[in-house]
Every structure is written in structure tokens, then in C-alpha cells.
């Protein structure tokens, strides 16, 4: 029997708020603090300050944003936030709990260099995908790729100056990610686009 009251079709994840600003903000803040250390703005002795951020905000909060992107059907957002959330969790373990400080410094530096290099390769892959999303996000990923590759190079070469350069590019990356996070939040609170993020 036909009915004039069909069951409404609900888009999966449509009831969820956009998790991208949370993921971007978590990434930006954690990156900014670590990059300030790498750039030499603060002494390396304060590195333990970063550990709580890498676990709670860069790690758990960003990973959660990735899982919410899965629920919204956003493959790119889920892959990016899920992966970089896991990156921060693994960085927290690597630097604070793995015993890295107990092996020869030169070997540890090369191990960290390899770790950063493969993340740099992954980021270059993701950068290709961002070229179809928004210019602002593309810029963030280009900067992040350069950051990872400079830090990897600096660790392989045990060069403080190259690591410092990576820190400065990392700070620029954080600013770009904060901008994109703010653009997303303002779009929600004002119900219209407030900050330009470039063509999609």
C-alpha cells in the first residue's frame, strides 16, 4: 500500500558537529609548543612540558576528531586526524617512555630521523590530496611536509641548525593550522564564511 509519508533519509553523521576545527586546533597547539623548543625559543630542558600535550590534546583529542570524521563519511579528515593523532601518541611514547635516552645518542638521533622521515613521506602523500580541498589546508600540509623533512635531515646529520630551521617552519605550520581552525569555528558561529581559505 502506498504512503504519502515516506521515512526520511538521514545522512550518516549529519547530527555531528564538524570535528575539523578541533583536530586542527589540537594539531596546531601541540606543534607550536614542540616547534618553539626545536627553534630554540625555549631550552630543550623544558621538553617534558610537551609530553602532556602530545598525549591529551595532540594525541587523544585529535585522534577522536579523526574517528568523528569517519562517522561523517570524510575519508580525508579521518585519515589525517586519525594518523596525526596517532603520531602524537607515538611521539609521547617514543620520547617519554621508550628508553630512547638509554642508547647511544648518535643511534638515537638516526632512529628519530627515520621516524620523522617516514612521517614526512606520509605527509607528502596527504599534501597531494589537499590540493582538491582548500588552498589554506594545502599550504598547511606543504609546510608540515617541509617541517618533517627538515627535522629528519637535522636528526640524521645531528645538526642543531637544521633542526632549528625545522622548528621555525613548524611554527609557521602551527599558525596556518590555527587559522584554518578559526575559519571553521567562525563559519559555525556566524553561519557564514568569515575567513578566506582559498578555492576548493
From TrEMBL:
Its main location: membrane. The keyword Membrane applies. This is Succinate-acetate/proton symporter SatP. GO terms for molecular function: acetate transmembrane transporter activity. Belongs to the acetate uptake transporter (AceTr) (TC 2.A.96) family. It is a multi-pass membrane protein. Keywords: Membrane, Transmembrane, Transmembrane helix. GO terms for cellular component: plasma membrane. NCBIfam families: AceTr_1 (NF038013). Pfam families: Gpr1_Fun34_YaaH.
Amino acid at each position: 500500500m502506498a504512503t504519502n509519508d515516506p521515512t526520511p533519509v538521514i545522512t550518516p553523521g549529519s547530527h555531528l558537529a564538524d570535528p575539523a576545527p578541533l583536530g586542527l586546533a589540537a594539531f596546531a597547539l601541540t606543534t607550536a609548543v614542540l616547534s618553539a623548543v626545536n627553534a630554540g625559543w625555549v631550552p630543550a630542558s623544558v621538553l617534558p612540558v610537551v609530553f602532556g600535550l602530545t598525549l591529551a590534546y595532540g594525541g587523544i583529542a585529535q585522534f577522536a576528531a579523526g574517528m568523528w570524521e569517519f562517522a561523517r563519511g570524510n575519508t580525508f579528515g579521518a585519515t589525517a586526524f586519525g594518523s596525526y593523532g596517532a603520531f602524537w601518541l607515538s611521539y609521547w611514547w617514543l620520547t617519554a617512555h621508550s628508553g630512547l635516552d638509554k642508547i647511544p645518542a648518535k643511534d638515537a638521533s638516526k632512529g628519530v630521523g627515520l621516524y620523522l622521515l617516514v612521517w614526512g613521506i606520509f605527509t607528502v602523500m596527504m599534501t597531494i590530496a589537499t590540493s582538491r580541498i582548500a588552498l589554506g589546508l594545502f599550504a598547511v600540509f606543504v609546510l608540515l611536509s617541509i617541517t618533517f623533512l627538515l627535522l629528519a635531515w637535522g636528526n640524521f646529520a645531528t645538526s642543531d641548525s637544521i633542526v632549528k630551521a625545522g622548528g621555525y617552519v613548524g611554527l609557521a605550520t602551527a599558525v596556518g593550522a590555527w587559522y584554518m581552525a578559526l575559519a571553521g569555528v567562525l563559519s559555525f558561529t556566524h553561519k557564514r564564511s568569515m575567513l578566506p581559505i582559498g578555492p576548493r
